[in-house]
Amino acid sequence: MVSVELGFTLGYILVCLCFVAPPSEFRAAGITVQNILAGWLGSEDLHFIYYHIKRTAATSLIHAALPLGYYVGLSIVSPHLQLWDFALAPTPAVVYFAVFSAIFCGVVVMNYIWSRKGWEGHPIVARLKSLGGNSWRATASSINVEFRRIDKFSSGIGGTRLYIMDSWILKTGPYNVNIAHQANVHLRVIKTENHVISHETGTSIQYLRIAVEQLSRGGKTFTIRLNSTEYGDLKNKLSAPIHAARDIVIRQSLSDMFLEAFREQVSQNPHHTLPEDAPVPEPCIGCMQTQSNIKLVKHCEEGDWGECVQCYCRPMWCLECMGKWFSSRQDQAHPERWLAGNSPCPTCRAKFCMLDVCFIA
What we know:
39% of the residues lie in helices and 17% in strands. The chain has 361 residues and is an alpha+beta fold. The strands form 4 sheets. A 4-stranded antiparallel beta sheet has the order 1-2-3-4, sandwiched between helices. The longest helix has 30 residues, at 48-77. The chain is elongated. The mean pLDDT is 87.
């Protein structure tokens, strides 16, 4: 029969592991430091730097207190051990209490030193100072402003989060925040991890490890771990290229593979010549960044046969946006049918297929 002490020990260790590295079930239930102390931490969206300064300090304190929580709990479930009478308590228990009490006191003193003069001694503030600028508060304000924008790239695996903004690269962990300026970094894919099955999606998955090397003096190199399906979105947000060795194969996402096949098919279709008096195509209304470069012209069937019909809209879309629109209108459960499918025009709803998408000559 399992003793009370052993059962409590195993249960406490399991709960602590789930609290220190919370699985998705714990995060969904709100059993995390961020949710428990939400009222004190404030808003991450409004004050990103101060939020994480307080979060990392609180996390270190709570995690340092967990071993002492075990001692207190064990004294309650097993009073016969007399853990609070140090003369009668078992020697290993007294040593355990002394060691972890010293560690907890050390963390308390460390947090007190950090918090003096408005958190001037915190490691996050030290990183902001190493980035240069007029003051670390000005740098923090710049990061806070950019973090509020909705166009930032964000990704999360386990207890870490990655944010890519117009000027900054941020990686948050339980006890620290890595900060790098996009203009002063060199990025390299150093490793890939292929897993046959993911516990979250039930399908195969590939993770990339990317080293972020800061070129400025005193800059710290750190690594980010990313799902390969998010690699394309990451590159679009970065201003610097990502270098990878030739032997590293990065698996494309399903949408990226379709866009590549879509682009190849459209390049084989006949080109469309606009009339001489036609106005110059305007920027794509989907992304507003690329000039409209395609026109929908019925080529798949002769006459009025088939589901596709002639579209009379002027050129308003670029190839990338039209490809994304086309894939979004397909049956997501059967990607093998996408190439043979059709889609309504995003403007007039006239049906077309891939054979009807033509580059403008």
